Amino acid sequence: MADKKLKNYEMMVALKPLLPDDLRKELHKEFVDMVQDDGGEVLDVDVWGKRYLAYKINGHNEGYYIIYNFKVSPSKIAEIKRQMQLKQEILRFMVVEIEDVDKIGTGIKKKELEI
């Protein structure tokens, strides 16, 4: 790992709404493995489930939302973004750095992790 200092990040992922559960589980495992690969850690996973999109994305009106809070080296973020862009199952994603760790979480009631 080039940069030993880990930073906190939040990533929102909107998956295609009709993906089978086993494929969602596989995508989740791939992301967790990618984060843990260089000594990172997934702090929280918030599954929102299926929600309407503000506008159509690739012909989809809905997306299956998952919010990840994780700690990883800043040098790993470019690789995470690249891997996410390659996944056809992902409609959109966004990664932001979290300055205040106490504010992690959305306040929305969490569903049990179905992944």
UniProtKB/TrEMBL annotation:
<comment type="similarity">
    <text>Belongs to the bacterial ribosomal protein bS6 family.</text>
</comment>
<keyword id="KW-0694">RNA-binding</keyword>
<dbReference type="InterPro" id="IPR000529">
    <property type="entry name" value="Ribosomal_bS6"/>
</dbReference>
<keyword id="KW-0699">rRNA-binding</keyword>
<dbReference type="InterPro" id="IPR020814">
    <property type="entry name" value="Ribosomal_S6_plastid/chlpt"/>
</dbReference>
<dbReference type="GO" id="GO:0005737">
    <property type="term" value="C:cytoplasm"/>
</dbReference>
<comment type="function">
    <text>Binds together with bS18 to 16S ribosomal RNA.</text>
</comment>
<protein>
    <recommendedName>
        <fullName>Small ribosomal subunit protein bS6</fullName>
    </recommendedName>
</protein>
<dbReference type="GO" id="GO:0003735">
    <property type="term" value="F:structural constituent of ribosome"/>
</dbReference>
<keyword id="KW-0687">Ribonucleoprotein</keyword>
<dbReference type="GO" id="GO:0005840">
    <property type="term" value="C:ribosome"/>
</dbReference>
<dbReference type="InterPro" id="IPR014717">
    <property type="entry name" value="Transl_elong_EF1B/ribsomal_bS6"/>
</dbReference>
<dbReference type="GO" id="GO:0070181">
    <property type="term" value="F:small ribosomal subunit rRNA binding"/>
</dbReference>
<dbReference type="Pfam" id="PF01250">
    <property type="entry name" value="Ribosomal_S6"/>
</dbReference>
<dbReference type="GO" id="GO:0006412">
    <property type="term" value="P:translation"/>
</dbReference>
<keyword id="KW-0689">Ribosomal protein</keyword>
<dbReference type="InterPro" id="IPR035980">
    <property type="entry name" value="Ribosomal_bS6_sf"/>
</dbReference>
<dbReference type="GO" id="GO:1990904">
    <property type="term" value="C:ribonucleoprotein complex"/>
</dbReference>
